[in-house]
Write a structure and sequence with these properties.
It is built from ten helices and no strands. By secondary structure, it is mainly α. It has one domain. Helix 6 packs across helix 8. The longest helix has 34 residues. It is globular, with a radius of gyration of 19 Å. The N and C termini lie far apart (41 Å).
């Protein structure tokens, strides 16, 4: 197949619509920088799912329609949860402020560069579902497999968030080590990884050519890296807050940081993961 045909497969005109939607909805980061990778992230994924339903809904099979709906549910849940937590929790607002350098202004051109990069990344992440729809939705079992994994991941994330909120209400000064937090120290990030694993699996049997596969794999690897970076950032913050607590030291010594049953306990000294 000629390279021009591979380019046409990888970048059909409809993919620019998805990019435009992701860029528009993630632009909320210009109001508050952290929103590029939080609230704007959720809104962009939701918008991408809705756009795919509008563009391809008439030709998609039920399982593929469900994939788009799950993207929307994911985005609404994430964006809504983050906004609600920021509004309700003064400690969370302080954490956000500390993590983003307080009130220090950021040059507009830097924000613009980040905006473009995150919008592209969000398109890469949803690309397995996009290409399934754009390639005529060949069917098969994988969209069902992907949808099941995505749904389970949503349940995992939601449960982890509720368990941590409940634990902080009981004792705001203590780390959370109950429920799913006995399995891994970052079960919400584990849910993220599982969700996007389901998205990638949903593209198997539909992705065509090395460029489509490369785009899908790049999006998956990027979000997995972001989750490991988030886990490292959380570990550094918790080490600062609880490092002198013997119970915390015992907890981190026996509980993997992100992947269950994998003896990876610390990321704070991993140099190639940037926070």
């Amino acid at each position: 197949m000629a390279f021009s045909e591979l380019l046409a497969q990888a970048f059909p005109s409809s993919i620019w619509v998805i990019l435009g939607i992701c860029a528009l909805l993630s632009a909320i980061g210009f109001y508050k920088f952290v929103y590029f990778l939080s609230v704007g992230y959720g809104f962009a994924v939701c918008g991408a799912g809705a756009a795919m339903l509008l563009l391809f809904g008439g030709s998609m099979q039920p399982a593929s329609l469900l994939l788009c709906v799950l993207l929307m549910v994911y985005g609404i849940r994430l964006g809504g949860f983050l906004l609600w937590r920021e509004i309700k929790s003064a400690s969370y607002r302080k954490t956000l402020k500390d993590a983003t350098g307080g009130d220090k202004p950021m040059p507009v051109f830097v924000k613009a560069a980040i905006w473009v990069c995150v919008a592209i990344m969000y398109v890469l992440q949803v690309s397995p579902i996009f290409y399934r729809a754009a390639n005529g939705d060949p069917g098969g079992p994988m969209p069902v497999v992907g949808a099941v994994v995505m749904a389970l991941a949503l349940v995992l994330e939601s449960t982890a968030d509720k368990q941590k909120s409940a634990a902080k209400q009981r004792n705001p000064r203590r780390f959370c080590d109950s429920g799913l937090y006995k399995l891994v120290r970052c079960p919400n990030y584990l849910g993220e990884v599982l969700f996007w694993t389901g998205v990638l699996l949903s593209g198997v049997g539909a992705l065509t050519g090395p460029l489509q596969w490369g785009i899908a794999l790049l999006g998956y690897l990027l979000i997995v890296y972001v989750m490991f970076s988030g886990a490292k950032r959380l570990e550094l913050r918790q080490n600062k807050n609880y490092g002198s607590d013997p119970e915390y030291q015992a907890y981190v010594a026996r509980t993997p940081i992100l992947l269950p049953f994998v003896p990876l306990y610390h990321l704070d000294k991993v140099k190639w993961i940037v926070v």
